[in-house]
């Protein structure tokens, strides 16, 4: 029997109605085999009896004969199938989270495929009919998925095989002739391919965004590395400079102490000499006093008169005025010397950013009319600003200065390096630099880093300052260059014509965006009417 079963194909053990292995196989008069329950239920649903395979009709319900040969063959087939399933169960036994075979009766095996027609998931063994039987090969198999019932239309109990683009939902064939009749409906495969292409494009964009962010991560890591190196270098430099400063102060202190002690010793030595001389004079005076006393006792008139003239002679006189010693000059001289040494040292320590280097980062700056104080006049190209006495009627927007003759530039400084030049020729009062974007423009301004304004200014024709420092300049600049290094926290001001550094703010900590800052100040009755002019950088 087993030899015979090996000669039969697997399709011969399947019922053509349930498409599964025969259960209680019976034969019809036309010679076709079915499960007893399958053929009985099939005929119960019809008004006539017809063979599902050859379509032969019977006048009345024929008597179904049990096919003992097929029964034995099916029994052997099922036994061998169980053996095959048992041998493969160890390899295909379903793990938690995997899709289970819907046919397995005992231990559930891992599903290999799901059928969208049968709405059943099959393990390797139970999938074989779909791979071998021609009628089943036309079914659509997909990788195993849970909840196949969710692929059926809840309203019509039909497979969801279409997509409504109007409502953006999956529908069945019956939906297209009812609720979605006038809508744009396409096969799922068509919409799938379009969406998949879009997904591919979106995925590529996402991958690009991921790569960009990964690059940014590397930039931040590199920034942290550079920051650490810069911090270490700055710490080493500060230790070196402050150690030098400590040493020079200690040295100056020792020198001042030595000078004061030397002066004291000289005064002490002089005092000892004076005391010695005074002692000698006292001895001489006491001796003369004794002689005078002795002479006064003499009764000899001639002797008294002859010796009185020599004894009555006044001793030599000296200026014995005692003056309190003063040491102020020593300390003052030492402090002046120390200040000069510090000034020379600071010049050496200032970052050496040459003007030509700064000019490489030139930016085309223009004035922002929305920030200008109402009495300031801006040129049409946004490059000049000066003050007039008449106030214009302008909207008091949040960006506009309300209590200071100032205006900002449009260009934002939030990273990197930034440079621009401004002509200040002919002006007696002005200020320019950069300002923190968020500072209060509705109140009077006190220029200085403490208020978020790093600026250089002139007042009273020749008083220059970079608050809080007052400057002494050899010559008056006619064109000023402003350079900002955002990451390094530097703001430099240059005399462009002399190519000299006027002043440098160092160690600044910028935490928000900066804007160019300009204040032409009052025209002072025409004395300061010249404009501030933003110049092209050569």
Features:
single chain; six-stranded antiparallel β-sheet; 24 strands
Helix count equals 9
- The span between the termini is 105 Å
Q: How many β-strand stretches?
A: 24
> Approximately what portion of the residues adopt beta-strand conformation?
15-25%
Query: What is the residue-mean pLDDT, rounded to a whole number?
Result: 85
Largest sheet: 7 strands, antiparallel
**How are strands sequenced across the largest beta sheet?**
12-13-24-15-20-21-22
> Structural class of the secondary structure composition?
alpha+beta
Question: What is the C-alpha radius of gyration, as a whole number of Å?
Answer: 55 Å
In which range does the helix fraction lie? 25-40%
Label the overall shape: elongated
Low-confidence runs of at least 5 consecutive residues: 1-7
Summarize the structure.
The protein is of the alpha+beta class. The chain contains nine helices and 24 strands.
Task: Characterise the protein shown here.
The protein is α+β, with helices and mostly antiparallel strands. It is 37% helix and 18% strand. It contains nine helices and 24 strands. It has helices at 2-7, 36-44, 68-92, 124-132, 134-137, 188-296, 301-311, 328-349, 355-359, and strands spanning 25-27, 33-35, 49-50, 57-58, 65-66, 113-115, 120-122, 141-142, 162-164, 169-171, 185-187, 376-378, 384-387, 407-408, 417-423, 430-436, 453-459, 463-466, 469-471, 479-485, 490-495, 500-505, 514-519, 532-535. It has a seven-stranded antiparallel β-sheet with strand order 12-13-24-15-20-21-22. A six-stranded antiparallel β-sheet has the order 14-23-16-17-18-19, with no helix packed on it. Helix 6 (188-296) packs antiparallel against helix 7 (301-311). The longest helix is centred in the middle third of the chain and has 109 residues, at 188-296. The two termini are 105 Å apart.
